[in-house]
Amino acid sequence: MTDVQSKIKEMAEHTFGTWNWQKAWKSPMLVTDAEGIYFYDAAGKPYIDFSSQLMCSNLGHKNPAIIEAVVRQAEKLPYVAPGFVTESAIEAVEALRGIMPSGLSKFFFSTSGTEANDGALIMVRQSKAPAYKIISRYHSYHGATPAGLAFTGDPRRGPAERARYTIGGVRFAPDCYCYRCPFGLEYPDCRVQCARYLDYMIKEEGNVAAIILEPVVGTNGRLVPPPEYFPLVRKICDENGVLLIADEVMTGWFRTGKPFAMDNWDVLPDIMTTAKGCTSAYTPVGITAATGKVADFFEEEFFCHGHTYAYHALTLAAIPPAVAEYRKLVDSGLLTRGAAYLKEKLYEVAAKHPCVGDVRGLGHFWGLEIVKNRKTREPFDVKADKLSGKPLMTGKIAAEAMKNGLYMAAWYDTLVIAPPLIITEEQIDEALAILDKALEVGDREAVSTDAEVSRSSEF
């Protein structure tokens, strides 16, 4: 065992591996460098970052403009208590006002997407009292705190509930999951029943304060709604006096092509949460953005929320240069060209592999659903398998890709394709050549049929 391996082993023995069995947290990879769309292990081997780490390194690694801004702030004023105002906070607000959807004009700054959603809960339950219930969806992830896990519909909610580590008052709605419609219908004959059912839930539940939705579901599938979905949800919320929270922690910051995913449907939420891409993960920032309708309530009410690191001067320094870099990227045309090329090539690769049942996504945010039988849509693994400890087919495919220099996040049923927005056509080809080979792992156990790959995001 080398000295480096020994230090990694010692580090792992004294830390908790996140979202994992600790027996699997024995020899994690040491990453020593990163630049552009690549990161490097201790031996100097490059890996294409095809999921932007945790769907957050949107501008790639070692962006000099962001690094320089953070260094300047560190040298000048890393931190003061959030009761003071800093120049970096002033500049962050100015930058956000130029890119946020019109109408979202008041912000609370925390340090993660989880905390951004906690802030939304505070705003909702104070301003809508005595109503207190929150409607979420079964295929969702909204964070790791008691509130975030309570909103979450994916497998991680189970252990949290057993440990009584969640808040109450959350109800779950059917997903906008067109590949596996919960109502057994096909678009457009479904008339977007998944949205219409929300109206029934609100009226039957009573005391509903808000609905929290990811515009395009992130971790749990990259589920893209039909064009009618969000306009109808907005109408239902307005008619019932319910607030609409858009969780854009993953989908914001040009991930789906637009500045924010809700821009794809011209729908304004009452509260929008975002994080990850707002600094391209160079510093940890969460943003809870509210409309005047929500913010005005607190003019005469005590806003019962805050953090020691809220409005952290050092973290906020990354927002203005990140916004500027996004604008440059849009102006260059690379964002649009890359998204179109990625979509075209993903369909080409997926069509060749019987283990790919569905290809769906927007912009630089895609999911490949891995199935045992493309014709019947029988999955290799289901939600309960995620916490069972059994080897998952998506994990096997991702591991094979990793061996050959391609990093992809994998969930129990899908592979996450979310590269940095700066990726070029040549780099997409490089990544998909590795993915093409890795998918053969799934093909070997999939049923060969003449069924075509589904494109459930194309309506």
Can you walk me through this structure?
This protein has 16 helices and 16 strands. The chain is of the alpha/beta class. The protein folds into two domains: 3-62 and 332-443, Aspartate Aminotransferase, domain 1 (Alpha-Beta Complex); 64-328, Type I PLP-dependent aspartate aminotransferase-like (Major domain) (Aspartate Aminotransferase, domain 2, 3-Layer(aba) Sandwich). A seven-stranded mixed beta sheet has the order 4-10-9-8-7-5-6, with helices on both faces. The longest helix is centred in the C-terminal third of the chain and has 18 residues, at 334-351. The mean pLDDT is 96.
Layout of secondary structure:
Layout (H helix, E strand, L loop, with lengths): L2 H11 L17 E5 L2 E4 L4 E4 L2 H4 L8 H13 L10 H11 L6 E7 L2 H15 L5 E5 L8 H6 L5 H6 L7 E4 L19 H13 L2 E6 L15 H12 L2 E5 L23 E4 L11 E6 H4 L17 H4 L2 H14 L1 H18 L4 E7 L2 E9 L4 E2 L13 H11 L2 E2 L1 E2 L3 E4 L7 H14 L1 H4 L16
